[in-house]
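As promised in the previous annual report, we have extended the structural survey to additional targets. Below is the entry for Phthalate dioxygenase reductase.
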Amino acid sequence: MALHLDAAGTPFELHYYVKRRENAAFVGEIAKIISHGTCVVHCSDEGQSPRSSLADTLGDARADHHLYLCGPSGFMDTARRIAAEKNWPEAQVHSEAFQPLKAAATSDDQDTFTVTLASSGETWPVPGDKTIAQVLQEHGVAVPLSCEMGMCGACLTPLMAGEADHRDTVQSEAEKSAAAQQIALCCSRSRSANLVIDL
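The corresponding structure token record, generated without further manual editing, is:
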């Protein structure tokens, strides 16, 4: 994200939280390659733990700013809580986890549903032991994938009809309940008998 913003000439601040300075990976490399942003390393052993400094770092919400969070779930939960306290709208807070959240197993996991391509009308069953992405690939449909765990957003695809059981961590709750939704083909399932996707 920092490289993308820098390449676009967009000013940004990168705040990197670590226990000790020697734990900070790529700080030298980041400092050398960015020209439109700043990188600030916050070290817990130097008194700059997330608990003590995150509220000041986030500051109050600004209409033209967005927060992009990445890290362990505890860190991101704390950052999201503080952002809410600082009146950051949920739509301006984005995150990417180091690992997917564990979804509670449900009986729906084993239920078969169908997926339909809006462009061709082709429909295939998605059994409980396969993802939508796997079924589409088995039928020759190109699906952009990266993490395959619902964390990156590469496979987000517009949902045209049906009710998604969203299991990704890349979309906000507001995005998951919006009128125009996207579904993560690598991990999400269906609460309805059929999903129609914009492919």
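The first strand starts at residue 12 and ends at 18. The radius of gyration is 20 Å. These points will be discussed at the next consortium meeting with the crystallography subgroup.
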